[in-house]
Structure formats: C-alpha cells, structure tokens
Amino acid sequence: MKQVIDFLQFWQDWHGTGRFLSVLGVSLGAMALLVVVLLRWLQRAAARTATRIDDDIVAALRWPARLGVVLGGLILAVRDLDERDLPRSVEDGLAGLIVALVLVSFTMAASRVTVILLEYNMRRSGSEQQVTTLTATMIRLLWAIPGVLVLLRMMDVTLAPALTALGVGGLAVSLALKDTLANVFSGFYISMAGNIHKGDYIKLDSGQEGYVEDVKWRITTLRTLQNNLVVIPNSKLSEALVTNYSHPEKRMALPIQLGVDYSADIARVERVALEEVQAAAPLEGLLLDPAPVVRFHPGFGDSSLDLTLVVHVEEFAKQFAVQDELRRRLLLRFRAEGIGIPFPIRTLDLAPGSLKRALEG
C-alpha cells in the first residue's frame, strides 16, 4: 500500500514535467516537418525565377527557420501547461528562453537578408563593390544591438550604471585599444570608399602585391600569384600608396620591348611583329581590341634600334603567359626573316701605342 501511495505521489509531482516534455517533443516533430516542407516548396519556387536573390534568401533563412522550430515547440508546450504543473520560476525561465529565441531568430534572419540585398544592389549598380567580412559583421551588430536592448529591458536590467562606467572607463579603454580601433575604422573606410574591392589585384608601395581576399575587422588579406597569403593591418593599408590593377577596368596595356640591328628595316619589323600578334590571337588573355601597335620607343640604343610592341590583356595575371608566347613567336620569326638581334657592343678608343706599352709592361 505504501508503494502505491509513493508512486501516486511521484506521478503527481512529475505529471506536469512529463506532459510538458511530451507536448514539446510532438510539437518539435510537427514543426520540423512543416518547416522542411515549406523550405523545399520555397526552394523550388525560387529555382523557377530568373534571379538568384530569392534562392540566396531562402538559403539564408535555413538557420533562423531551425530556431523557429524550437521556438514554436516551446510556445505550444508552454501554452498547454497549467499553473500547478510546473513551478513559477521554471515558467518564467521558459518565457525568457522564448523571448531570447525570438530575438535571435529575428536578428539572424534580418542581418542575413540585409547582406544579400546589399550585395544584390551593389551588383545592379555596377560599382563592383562587394560585401566584405567587416561590412557583414557591422550589419549583424547593428541588428543585434536593438535585440540586446529589448532583452535587457525585459530582464529589468538598468543600463544607466553601465553607461556611467563606460563613460568613466572609456578613455582608458580607447588608449588600450587604440591600435585595434584604428584598424577597425580603417577597414570600414576601405570597404566603403570603393577604391579597393574583393578580387582586385593591388600592389603596395612597400612591394607587397596580390588579389584582395577579404577585408576583415583588423586585417586585409592578399593572395599572391604564388598562392601565398599576405596579411596587412588595415591602418597600414589605408596609409599606403596602392596601385589597383583591376580598376577602373581589368584590361591593361602590356608593353614588350624589341631590339633589332641598326641595319634592320623598321617598317618590316613592325609588320612582322603585328603579324605574330594576329597569329597568337586565340591565346587566352590576349585582346585584339584595342589593336596592337609598334612604337619606335625608346629609340636609338647603344647597340640596337629599340621598339615597343604594345598589346592589351584581359587582366594583370594573364600578362605573363601572353609575354611568353609572343616572345617565343617573335624570336623564331626574326630568325626566319633574317632580322638580327644584336649583342651589346662597346667601342674602345685607345691612344696610339698604349696597348703595346701595356703588354710590354
């Protein structure tokens, strides 16, 4: 009899918890199934459109949707509770968790959609700017701040003492973090100025060069042609003299120096060089518009007539393969045409008898 009484007492104490967990489990399963079906339907609908922005938005909403599953399950389970099922403190904790999930899912969804819309507008404007890691982080912070303030307000946390402490300690913090803050604001300026973009090939006055991989909150990373990574503090980059080989356009002029004998016919050399450029036209990266030209520059050399063949290439990295191919073709063609490529020549003017006296001495 005592065992039956103990079991009934145990069941009475844990009936609310068991019921809550049961309703929570069923609700989570039903909400998960509903969200999966809804996301698949949205994904198919987005795939039928001509633009990519709706596909990106659906993909960005996957994680907020998973938080929404937990949120919906908690709401249904809490609504099913009676006041006597669980202690008041537990119900208050569950209510706080629901509010936190609402804020997190909303801010996550809003920040992701904002980043996608910003990228879409940048592509449509033709500015070739891209959303860097620093810009995306700033957008997330801007969306998170209202959510944190609302959460603190609901928790009856007073911000006045914290703001007072920040005002008193702000000077010390700014002095301690001056280098970090300088890098943060420099990175934000670099991202917003529009002179350097992700994917651009740049060269600093200190000699470092490469493709811009990303602009982060403290550093900017470059990927060199040797596939190495160069890490540059944002404050250093903002103060450096930078040559951007990708702007205002990626196409660039490529000068190739030619040296021929003084006895060579310049018109013939020009014709041969342009013919070889036309023959190499299928080469990747080589452009025929603008048309290639040959200029008699720099002109009269010490032992050769120096000309410059100017062609255009698609981008900076394509110039090396184009130079290699054109130089090989020009060397073979000059040999076939009998156009000489002279060696350096020096003429020595010696006083009469000086060489004989030097040898006898």
Physical arrangement of strands within the biggest beta sheet? 4-3-2-1-5
Oligomer class: single chain
State the order of secondary-structure elements, H for helix, E for strand.
Answer: HHHHHHHEEEEHEEHEEEHH
**Hey, roughly how much beta strand do the residues contain?**
5-15%
Instruction: Quote the distance from N terminus to C terminus.
Output: 134 Å
Low-confidence stretches: none
Structural class: alpha+beta
Beta-strand segment tally: 9
- What general outline do the C-alpha atoms trace? elongated
Any overview of this molecule?
The chain has 361 residues and is of the alpha+beta class. It has three domains: 2-126, no CATH class; 179-244, SH3 type barrels (Roll), CATH 2.30.30.60; 252-337, Alpha-Beta Plaits. Helix content is 58%, strand content 14%. The chain has eleven helices and nine strands. The chain has helices at residues 2-47, 53-60, 62-79, 88-125, 133-154, 160-176, 178-193, 234-239, 266-279, 319-337, 354-360; strands at residues 201-204, 209-215, 219-223, 229-233, 242-244, 252-260, 286-287, 293-300, 305-313. The strands form two sheets. It has a five-stranded antiparallel beta sheet. The protein is elongated. It starts with a helix and ends with a helix.
